Amino acid sequence: MPLDILSLGEPMVELNQGDGAHFRQGFGGDTSNVAIAAARHGAKSGYLSAVGKDAFGDALMELWSAEGVSTQNVTVDPGASTGVYFVTHDEHGHRFSYLRAGSAASRLCLTPQAREAIAGARVLHLSAISQAISLQMCDTCFEAIGTAREAGTLVSYDTNLRLALWPLPRAKAIIKETLSLCDIALPGHDDAMQITGLADPDAIVDAFLGYGCGIVALTLGPDGAIVATPDQRRRIPTLQVKAVDATGAGDAFDGAFLAEYLRLDDPFAAGEYACAAAALSTTGYGAVAPLPRRADVAAAIKR
């Protein structure tokens, strides 16, 4: 069955310290989070990746099955492990520590089945993290983008910038090249400032539109988002909530935005919906557990 959204990247098992001394197991990986978020908002989503032949890989496969995310294009690599990361919290917010070198996803290559799935999907979603984890995965991402463009599949891209994975000059070059090939750009303000060298949100949006993106949704944390096309622009406020952990807020925004955009074909309505979903996702700990469902967002917007 053709998918609405096929997300490409690296899944990870999360160990989150939360508000105590003990770490609780959860799940993460930005593109996996997006696939789950989109499914919770009613989109037919799937994941394109690889996991290790280990307990963590088994747990991720069970998670996607439970969330209604297709795993037809997730391979099991017996020669590599599934990535793991830790989340700790202090007065400055949340911090990440990773054990992901040589992960199964970093060795991913496209199969004929995967190319067919990309061509049949309405949207291919990926992120800069997908490209940063290895040279092999970076090449795979560009091959996937080329397959999507040839088939008329929309390309969605989150510029998630992790400088622990690659130096800024290389990151900027790869990200800007990718932006020239994508239809929907989903940058966060902090990352976008480093990529463009600009601070003003509207100037950043102008730069992203100049790269060739048809839709730009720039997230601004507690200040909401700016959604723009070459012809229109709108600043969208967020919901006021008691936030405790913003670990997966950007992914919550992305999944909600893509699901709602495909439903309504209206990027501004999608932005309003996604801002509400992202705010709700910060009211619990972890990347996946707090991701809201459509009924949650509808109720929050109504209030």
Strand order, main sheet: write it out.
5-4-1-8-9-10-11-12-13
Query: What number of structural domains do the residues give?
Result: 1
**CATH homologous superfamily classification:** Ribokinase
Low-confidence stretches: none
Beta-strand residue percentage:
15-25%
| Pattern of helices and strands | EEEHEHEEEHEHHEHEHHEEEHHH
Return the CATH topology. Answer: UDP-N-acetylmuramoyl-L-alanine:D-glutamate ligase
Structure at a glance:
With 303 residues, the protein is an alpha/beta fold. It has one domain: Ribokinase (UDP-N-acetylmuramoyl-L-alanine:D-glutamate ligase, 3-Layer(aba) Sandwich). The chain contains 11 helices and 13 strands.
Task: Explain this structure.
The protein is α/β, with parallel strands linked by helices. The protein has a single domain, classed as 3-Layer(aba) Sandwich (UDP-N-acetylmuramoyl-L-alanine:D-glutamate ligase). It is 41% helix and 23% strand. It contains eleven helices and 13 strands. The strands form two sheets. Strands 5-4-1-8-9-10-11-12-13 form a nine-stranded mixed β-sheet, sandwiched between helices. A four-stranded mixed β-sheet has the order 3-2-6-7. Helix 1 crosses helix 9 and helix 10 packs across helix 11. The longest helix is centred in the middle third of the chain and has 17 residues. The mean pLDDT is 94.
